[in-house]
Amino acid sequence: MAFRSIHHLTRLSACLVATALALWAQPSEATKRLQERNKMFEPAVIQVAENVYTAIGYQVSANSMIVGDDGVIIVDPGQMPSAAREVRAAFEEISSLPVRAIVYTHGHGDHTNGAPAFFEPGKGIEVWARDNYGSEQALVRSKGLGPGLRASNSQGFDLPLEQRMGIGIAIPPDRRPQGNMMQDGLRRPGAPAASPRPAQVRPTHKFSEQRKSLEIAGVRLELVAAPGETQDQLYVWLPDQRVVFAGDNFYQSWPNVYPLRGTARRSLRDWIASIDKMVQQDPLHVVGGHTTPMLNDAKTVLANYRDAMQWVLDRTLDGLSKQMTPDELVEYARLPERFAELDYLGDYYGTVEGTIRDLYAQDLGWFDGDALSLHRESPRKQSERLADLAGGVDALVAKARELMDSDDPLGAAQLLRHAIRLRPEDSAAKLMMADALAIVGERTFNGPVRNYTLSTSNRYRKQAQEQQ
Ligand SMILES: [Zn+2]
Fold first, then answer.
1. CATH code of the region 377-467
2. Cα 133 to ligand 1 centre (Å)
3. Are 113 and 79 in contact (CB under 8 A)?
4. 61-80 pLDDT, tens per residue?
């Protein structure tokens, strides 16, 4: 996971917040599920093995300490020096030995920017990463793609506190320390000025091998190349304790193979191969990049994770050979019950649907195989045809109202999209759209999809209010 936008509180009108609160008064099953899940992120230091500890809930990412004979090793110091200092204080209650090394599982700022809390220049602290460290950011930069609405909308940064439930795999935004989330110096146009970028701690040691064996502070550890969520990903393997630190290749959610911000290209095939490597190590415990560690049954958990992804890959390829379109594949490659019932494969952060669609897009590009997709009409033309069939724009809006009254907000939104396209000055239609999307979003438990839907709802409401 990466947060590319700064913590940004959108100022919304009192009316909007009141509406949101009214909708929140009767929480949906999805909201209750997320509220329950968020208990996972109460700050705690969890003992994983005799000399291994993981801090959860202090920062958006999980931060770990391995205690050696004469020093400690930190895996992923987290996203902010201030919060990372709290983690350090909690770790020092367990061991006062000096920090000897820091390992970055990958280059995302939510795993690395906290390093100044643990790193002191001149003390010989080794900072380890792979030699392609920062590959995803470099790729995004080379394409000229910066952070934007897609990122901040899906992460929930643009929502008022009342609407924030988090993104499913991290401490919710309303409980995070104040200040610039990532302090990465990036901001969207119009957002408040970011505080200065903190000193970055660059890796002092990089490796290009598939596997690097080290002994630090008397601890035997292996750093293993593991492309997946990012190309620069690695996992840390402790052979003596049988602990694997999976980085963001594992967290308790369906993997985020396709991030909604759209700036990353992730390989499902690489991801599967990297999880398989971890399974072959015969691990007992797995520490993921965000959620709480899975203790004692890591091998089974990771094997299920791998097999579920492989199942989606195989099923999608099978559907491709049958000339299915992405929409058809989404139906065809649904997870079978044996995987769907596992909570750690739930669509909290990534989605199975997004994975299937992205696999299609990466393998075959935009053309879905339907001849009519080669003869597309403009969005306006499509809306005109629908309105004509319905008996005009008023009829579309009336039907949308009927659907709202019969508790079909998604159906209403589908029709309102066309009505608003044909009559953008219709503030009543926009308000109804805002209500429809607010309900659809509140009934969604996937964090990014929920946040994106609610942010869009708020935008419609704001537009309608400005037009009235
Ligand atoms: Zn992450």
1. 1.25.40.880
2. 14
3. yes
4. 999 999 999 999 999 999 99
